[in-house]
Amino acid sequence: MTEKEYQLQQTRVMKFYCRLPEYFLEDARIFEGEIAVSTGPIAYEQRQSLRYEAISEGMPWGKLWDSAWIHLAGEFPESWKDREVIFQLNVGGEGLLFDAQGVPFYSITNTSSLVRHYRKEYVQFGSCTTPGKFELWLEAAANGLFGREEDPDYPDQHGDFGSIRKLRYGLFRREVWALALDLEVLMSLLHFPHTAGDFGFPETPAFPEGSAREKQLMRILSRAVDCFAGNPENATVARAILAEALQTPALASAMTVTAIGHAHIDTGWLWPVRESVRKAARTFASQLMLMERYPDYVFGASQPQHYLFIKENYPALYEKIKQRVAEGRWELQGGMWVECDCNLASGEAIIRQFLHGKNFFRDEFGIEVKNLWLPDVFGYSAALPQIIRKCGCDRFLTQKLSWNQSNKFPHHCFRWIGIDGTSILSFFPPEDNYNATLVPEMLNYGVNNFSENDTIPEIISLFGIGDGGGGPKEEYLERGIRCANLEGCPKVRFGRADEFLERLGKYEKELPAWHGELYLELHRGTLTTQAEVKRNNRRCEEMLIAVEKLYAGRDLKEYPARELDRLWKLLLLNQFHDILPGSSIAPVYERTRKEHQDILESCAKLMAALKDKSDCMTFVNTLGTPYHGLVKVPGKEGWLPLTLAPHESRTLHTFDSENIVCLREDRVLENEFLRAEFSMAGELVSLIEKSSNREMLSAPANVLKLYHDRPNANDAWDIDSFYVNEELADAVWCTKITPAKSGSLWSELTLEFAIGDSTLRQTVRLAKGAKELIFATTVNWQEEHRLLRVEFPTSIHNGKANFDIQYGFLERPIHRNTSWEEAKFEVCQHQYCDLADSAGGLALLNDCKYGVSVHENIIGMSLLRAPTYPDKTADRGEHEFTYALMPHTGDFREAGVREAAASLNRPPLMIAGGLKAWKLPVKLETFSGSVVLEVVKKAEKEDALVVRCVERHGRFGRCEIHFDAPYRTITECDMLEWNPVGKAMKSGAEVSFRPFEIKTFLIK
Ligand SMILES: [Zn+2]
C-alpha cells in the first residue's frame, strides 16, 4: 500500500464512520410532544400544573436558562415485540428522562462546541416488551453542557440551544452501532483525526508510521467498508472482518489501566449552581442505568454537596446510589465538601471542607474516604499535605499541573512534602485529563507520558464526559471492553480508584519527592478576579471563627451548632474551584453575594443574641494574639485606640475617641516608630523606620500602575507574563491631596487618583504607637481588560521573601534564575508578604488581596482586574480594601508581622451592649512565643470543646494548655475530631509542636 493509497483509504473509512449513525434507527417514527416552559426548574410533582402546547421538530421553545417539561407520546407497533428500541432526542439543551414512577433514569445533552463527541442524544431504551401506546416525561434545560460557550475574541460563536431538533424513536440496529465502535477503536490505533481521542495533545499512534501493521490494519478497515456496501444488514459481516484485528491480543508486557467512570461536575461555573443540582441528577441517573447494563462497571464521584443535592431533590435516586455504594460499584471520592480552591481558602476553611465532607460520607454511607480528589483545582498550597494527613487521607490525586504554561512537571507519582515535612503520596493521571475517552491513542499517550513508567506497571484513567457533568456514555464502556486485551494498547480493566491508589503504596520508598507548593503555571488572574467575592469570603472566614469562640466561652447547651453548620456549608460551597477564583458567570455570583451576606448577617444576629441592654459597648478580641489598633465605633466621631490581650473582652461605658485634629501644611505622617512622606504626585517618597533610622524605599512607592490585560485565552482566569510590557502611559494621575491632619491618637492624609475611567481614593492613616501605615482604599472601577497593581520599590536586598499561606508561611525566591521561578511572576499570599534582610525589612499586609509578586527589591500587589468572559461585567463598580506597610527591624516573626496582619483582618467584635460573662475557658501559655490558639468551637458530634493550636513561626514550639471547670481532660485528636492520637491529660498539659504543626484537641 503506497502512502497515497493509505491516505485515500483513511479518508474513505473516516467518512464511512461519520455516516454510520444515520443507520442506528430502523423504521424511525416521530414522537408527538407537548411542552410547558418556565424560567426556572419546576419539580416533577408540579409538572401537571403547567400549561402545555404542542411541539414538533424544528420549533424553538426557550431562551438561555429557561426550563421545560416535555411530554412525549408514541406507539410501538406489534411487529416490534421483543426487539430493541432506541430514542433519538435532541431538545437543544440538556434533558433528563423520568420513568413512570417519577424517578430520573437517563440524560441527554445536545452539544458542546468544545468537544464534538460530548453530544448525547441516543437513549437505548431496551426491549419492547409491550407493544402499544407509551409516554415519556423529559425535563429540558435551555443551555449547553457548558452553559453558553463564548469566546471574547469570537463573540458570535456560542452553543445552540432552546429549540427542538430530534424527537424520534425506532428499532435499534445494535450491530451498526457496534460496528461504529469497532471502527472507532481500530481507527484510534492508527490515530485518525477527529475521533473521540482527538483532544489536541501529541498523537500517539500504536504502530510506527509506515509500518506493516499499520498498513495491514488499514486494509482490514477498508475491507469492512467494502463489505457493508451501503446496507446496514451487512454490519455483522463487516464486524466479522474487524474481529480479526480486534482479537489480536496485547503484548504480555503491556501496562494495565484501571478505568473508573468519572464525571467532573463543576458546582457552579458557566451555569448557575441551581443547574448543578440537575447536572448531578442527570449524571448520576445515567450512571446507575449503565451499571445495570455493565456488571463490571465502576463509577466514582466526589463532593458531598452534590450527594446532598440528590438527597434533597431526588430521594429515590439517592437510595439507588446508596445501594451501589454498598455494593462497592459506586466509589465515594475525595474528602472535601466540594472540590475547593486551594490557593485562596484559609487553612481553617480547608479543614472544614474535610470536616463536613468526611462527616457527610460517614454519616450517610458509613464510609471513610482516604483520598483527596481535586483533578481540576488551580494550584495546591504547601500547607495542604499536613491538613490532608490530619484529616485522615493519605493519597492525593490531581492532573491540573499538566496545564502548566512553561514547565512540564517532572513526576506523575511522587511524595509531596509540605511546609511541616508531612509527605503525601500523590498521583497525576498521566493522560493529563479527567475527561478521558478510553481510546487506544489516549491510553497510549497515558502510558508513554507516565514519568514513573519504568517502575510502576499501571496507570489510572478517569473516563467520561466532565466539567459540565455527564460521565461515560455506553460508547465509552464498549471501547473499554474492546481495549481489555488488544494489540497496540495497554490492558484496560474497570476498577476503583481507591484500590489503585492503595496499590501505589508499595512503590512509596522508590518515589521521587517534591517539596513545597504545587504551583499551577496558569490561571494567575484567579488570585484577583471577582474581588468582592474574595473580600467577602475573607470576612466570612474570619467572622465564623470569631463567633464560634464567642459561643465556646459559654455553656455549650447554648451553642448554635445547627446554624453554624448551615453557615459554614454556605461558605464551603462558595469556595468551589470556579466560584472563589472568579471564573464563573454573573448568575453564580448573584447567589454567592446573597449567601455571603447571609453568613455575615447571621453572624451579626448570633452576636447580638448574647448582649444585654445596658448602655455600653463591648469589644471582644477573638484572636489568639494581642490586638492593638484603632477601632471605629458606630455613631461616634473619630477613632478609638484599643489594646486587648488575646481573647480579652472589655466593656466600655465612655469613649476616649478623639476627633480633635490640627491641620498641617506638609504631607508627612509620623509617630514614634515611623515617618512617611508623600509627594505632590501622591507617591510615598520616604518611609523611615525610626528605631534603626532606615529608609525602606529605593524609589517612590505606593505607585499605582494600570496595564492592558488581555491574556491569550481564559479571560477571567489568566494573567499572561507579557502584561508588564503593556503598561498604559499617563493612565494614572493624582487629582487631589488633602494635607496631613493629626491629633494625639492618629494622623492621616487623603489621596485621590484618576485611573483610566475610574477613580481611587485612599486615606492613609498612622495611629499613635502603631507600626503600620494603613491605606484604606475605595475605588470606582469602570475599566475593561485592565489590571491595576500597586508597587513598592524597597531598599532591601535578599534572595528570598516570605508569603503568608494557610496556617504558615512560604519562602519563595525573588529572582528568576530558572524557568520555574520565572513562571511564578504572580503568586498567592494570604494576609501578608515580607521582604527582609537580617537587619529588618518591609511587610505588606492586606485585608483581601491574594495576587502578589516580589521581584528583586520590588513588592507589587494586584488590586483589580476587568475581564469580560465569562462574566461581562466582572468587577465593575465600587470596591473597598485596605492594605498596610509595616517596616520592621529584625526577623518578621519576632516583629509581629503576622499578628498585625491578623488584627487588620479580624478587628475586635463590637457588641452594642454588655456581654454576659464571656470568658474563653481555654488559655495557652506559650514558651516559644509561636504557638497560637486559633480555633475554639464545640465538637461536631459531642458536648465537648475542640481546640486547634498552630505553630506559626516554622520552628519547634511548646506550650501549656489550661482550661477551666467543668472541663476535666484534654486529648489530642485528628482534625476530624474522630480519633484520639494521644492520652487524656489534665489542665496545664505541656504540648510540643513540629515547625508549622497544627494540633487539634478535644476538651471534655
Ligand atoms: Zn472544574
How many separate domains make up the residues?
5
Q: What amount of the residues lies in strands?
A: 25-35%
Low-confidence stretches: none
Instruction: Give the rounded overall mean pLDDT.
Output: 94
CATH H level, superfamily name of the largest domain: Glycoside hydrolase 38, N terminal domain
CATH class of the largest domain: Alpha Beta
The total count of strands amounts to: 51
- Please count the helical segments: 17
Spatial separation of the terminal alpha carbons = 81 Å
Q: What is the CATH topology of the largest domain? A: 7-stranded beta/alpha barrel
Largest sheet: 10 strands, antiparallel
* SSE class: alpha+beta
GO molecular function: alpha-mannosidase activity; carbohydrate binding; metal ion binding
Keywords: Glycosidase, Hydrolase, Metal-binding
Protein name: Alpha-mannosidase
Family: Belongs to the glycosyl hydrolase 38 family.
Secondary structure layout plus pairing:
Elements: H1 3-19, E1 25-30, E2 32-38, E3 53-55, E4 67-76, E5 84-90, E6 94-98, E7 104-109, E8 122-127, E9 132-141, E10 166-172, H2 174-189, H3 212-228, H4 235-246, E11 256-261, H5 273-293, E12 299-301, H6 304-313, H7 315-327, E13 330-332, H8 347-365, E14 371-373, H9 384-390, E15 395-397, E16 413-417, E17 423-427, H10 440-449, E18 458-463, H11 474-482, E19 491-494, H12 497-503, E20 513-515, H13 531-552, H14 561-573, H15 586-608, E21 617-620, E22 627-631, E23 640-644, E24 649-652, E25 662-663, E26 668-670, E27 674-678, E28 684-689, E29 694-695, E30 703-708, E31 732-742, E32 746-755, E33 758-767, E34 773-781, E35 786-793, E36 800-805, E37 808-813, H16 819-823, E38 827-828, E39 832-837, E40 840-846, E41 851-855, E42 858-864, E43 877-889, H17 897-905, E44 909-911, E45 922-926, E46 931-938, E47 945-951, E48 957-963, E49 970-973, E50 989-993, E51 998-1003
Parallel strand pairs: 11-18, 11-19, 12-13, 14-15, 15-17, 16-20
Antiparallel strand pairs: 1-10, 2-3, 2-4, 4-9, 5-8, 5-10, 6-7, 6-9, 16-17, 21-24, 21-44, 22-23, 25-31, 26-27, 27-28, 28-29, 30-35, 31-32, 32-33, 33-34, 34-43, 35-42, 36-37, 36-39, 38-41, 39-40, 40-43, 41-42, 45-48, 46-47, 47-51, 48-50, 49-51
The structure holds zinc ion (ZN).
